[in-house]
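Tutorial handout. Part one gives the primary structure; part two gives the three-dimensional structure as tokens.
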Amino acid sequence: MGHGWEGVVLKLMRGKDFVFTVTGAEQVTERYRRVSLTDGGMLAATGVHPTMWVRMWFQDAGKPHQRAYTLVDPDPAAGTFSLEFALHDGRASDWARKVEPGDTIEATVQGTGFTMPDPLPSRLFVIGDPASLPAVNSLLDAVGEVPATVWFETPHASDRELPFRVRPDHHDLRLVERRDAGAHLVREVKAALPGLLADTANAYVWIACDALTTRTLTSFVRKELGLPKDRVNALGYWRTI
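Part two.
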């Protein structure tokens, strides 16, 4: 299918197109679903790095509709990976609910713009939610034994049962109920992060929540706490309606 003007822009930005094939699906919680796929040669062509994501193309009333998803457990040798969906109303979630083995979907890889800090930080601070959980887990896997504090917003009770890849000996997971459109999470982070940073040299802060929360916390970390740009990575993963 054609990808409309968005596809044209991605082509101009050297985006590469692939076709994925579904091999299975698993309902992780009532609001979270994992879909397994073969990569159509993508991983061999692009390589793999932490928090890597692709743009998936869905049909919305006959028009192309793209959404970005982080790869879960990409295996270049096997040419496989999974995607995880925080389910809500929308074309992508509808697709994830109904998809069956053998179904195909088109995708574009245009580059994710993330490189692991080198050298690795002495401590990692992560702020995320169900939409960014695959990226959070990818990041935790990549930093190995680096200590990490994770604030994770939970819009629903079942989000407390999500597949967090935390290690009790290295990771401090702090589940924060979503209240006041993300303001509660902001208050929790603002109360705790300054003291934690004061005791840590060479820390790295990674933020991926809804767009407003991400902007608010990024401004706090950069302007009020004074962290340099190369020690902060922030990306709004979704927008409130």
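Part three, for discussion. The chain has two domains: 4-109, 123-234. The domain at 4-109 is CATH 2.40.30.10 (Elongation Factor Tu (Ef-tu); domain 3).
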